[in-house]
Amino acid sequence: MSSATATRVVVADDSGLMRRVVTSTLEHAGFKVVGAAKDGDEALALCEREQPDAMTLDLAMPGLDGIGVLRALRRQGDRATPVVVVSAFSPAHGARAVDALAEGAFDLVAKPAVGDGIDRFTTELSDKVRLAAASRRRVPGRAAAAAPSALTRPRPGSPLAAPSVATGLGGTGRLERRARAHAGTRRMVMIACSTGGPKALAELVPALPAPLGAGTLIVQHMPPGFTNSLAARLDRASNLNVREAAGGETLDPKVALLAPGGAHLRLSDPARVVTLSDEPEIGGLRPRADLTIVDAAKAFGERLVLVVLTGMGKDGLEGAQEVRRRGGRVLVEAESTCTVYGMPRAVAEARLAHEILPLGELPAAIAAEAGA
Questions:
Q1: What's the rounded Cα separation, in Å, for the pair 331 and 215?
Q2: Distance between CA 337 and CA 157 in Å, rounded?
Q3: Pick from 18, 20, 57: which is nearest to 39 by CA?
Q4: Which of 58, 295, 315, 354 is catalytic?
């Protein structure tokens, strides 16, 4: 790729070593690094001057830190530079990572620890920066984007007012859904998402009623140390009790269990008890949604509703095939509201989706399908 057409990136980190590592990684991957900043004020000034396609951002910097940069960028609206946070993460940093996503970060990449190989970091950083830059070039289609994130809203104190439901491209429509709900069938809800998922979950989960169906499981691709903080934030905003799964739980209609980063979430059949597995990563992912979805399909058959939200890759495709084979229902998020239309696209293009709906219409559809 010529320098004239290369994706232009600003790198922000207070460590000179990490600025060099990130810069070298991106340049070897074909990006053009147009500036490197050692603090938040320099990062904002470089973005204003260079108008880059994307920025990598450390969270812990002197003066204006990464969260302050993200808040300043949010005020720019559609002009804001997409940001991939590149920072050291641990359980103690998990809440800060979720803060970053709530403040508008596109995605997160963990800095390589001592002894870690560089190849995975290089691939992950390049892929996410490329997707972040592409997101800026997309024509916005998300009518709900201006609504405040539920990650920052308190738990609702009034009864849920369900939004109206529109018929999806592969859908059977409102009347059939309403008839199924009145039939008294309570289905388990399985939600899978990746890039852009925390934002999507922040809109979706607080809009779901409690109790909901036969229980809810969520697989969101995140590294260890993030998911407990994400669950806590969602819990504060939601009618459902949202918890990071610890293993040993039985499904509860009032509870949504979130797969912990670094472990596969499994569901036993016929006992329907949640377990955690340290089996090897599949396609670089642990948790892998396909494993959980297939377990749920075997346990619940036609009493399962699979919901596939924004995310890159094809995780969820094999699971959706098993759900359809066993008579369950499949809902996917429409491209117009996805941060990355990868996981939903794979399911939709395989003609496995019963309905394709924008994010704002999914809560009512899920409640009707699952039985609230």
A1: 17
A2: 27
A3: 57
A4: 315
Q: Bigger pLDDT: 31 or 112?
A: 31
pLDDT band (50, 70, 90) for residue 182? very low
As a whole number of angstroms, the distance between CA 227 and CA 221 comes to 9
The CATH architecture of the domain made up of 163-370 is: 3-Layer(aba) Sandwich (3.40)
**Pair of tokens at residue 270:** 């016929």
Residues 206, 7: Cα–Cα separation, whole Å: 36
**In the annotation, is 221 catalytic?**
yes
C-alpha distances in Å from residue 121, one per residue of 102, 108, 116, 125, 131: 23, 11, 9, 6, 15
Beta strands at 54-57 and 304-308: parallel, antiparallel or unpaired: unpaired
Q: How many CA atoms lie within 13 A of 41 on its CB side?
A: 3
pTM summary value: 0.83
Q: Of 93, 221, 264, 354, which is the active-site residue?
A: 221
Whose tokens are 């809203």? That residue is 153
Lowest mean pLDDT among 96-110, 242-256, 352-366: 96-110
Q: Which residue has tokens 């948790």?
A: 287
Q: Where are the domains of the chain?
A: 8-137, 163-370
CATH number of the domain located at residue range(s) 8-137 in this protein? 3.40.50.2300
CA 317 to chain centre: 16
Task: Determine the straight-line distance between the first and last CA of the chain, rounded to whole angstroms.
Answer: 52
Evaluate if residue 87 carries a pLDDT over 90: no
Point out the catalytic residue in the list 194, 229, 235, 290.
194
Helix ranges (DSSP H) in 150-218: 174-182, 197-204
On the question of a common fold for 8-137 and 163-370, the answer reads yes
* Tokens of residue 197, six digits: 């998922």
Which residues, 6 or more positions from 11, have their beta carbon under 8 angstroms from its beta carbon? Answer: 19, 22, 23, 26, 33, 35, 36, 37, 55, 56
Residue 298 and residue 212 in contact, taking contact as beta carbons nearer than 8 Å? no
